[in-house]
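Structure ticket #2291
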Amino acid sequence: MADNQLARWMGGSPLWVLIRLLLLSLVVGVILSALGLDPMNIFASLESLVRHLFNFSFEAVERLWRYFVLGAVIVIPLWIIMRLANRGR
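Resolution: structure written out below.
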């Protein structure tokens, strides 16, 4: 009876729950390692991750802004020329 209560509390057979937890921990550990997090210094690693993501977002905005300006150098003068050319009609 106690074994059945343990299985019910754990959400399944204790052995299978343990195996699933080990595999899930391994997968999450690989993902967190790929993000550059260190288990011994998790708060500093999280701060570093947030800082890198923050800087990355500003780099992306800067890159998009450069593409916009580059395209506008061509598009805006052509639009003005087209508007002036169609004005006479």
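Closing remark: The first helix runs from residue 2 to 10.
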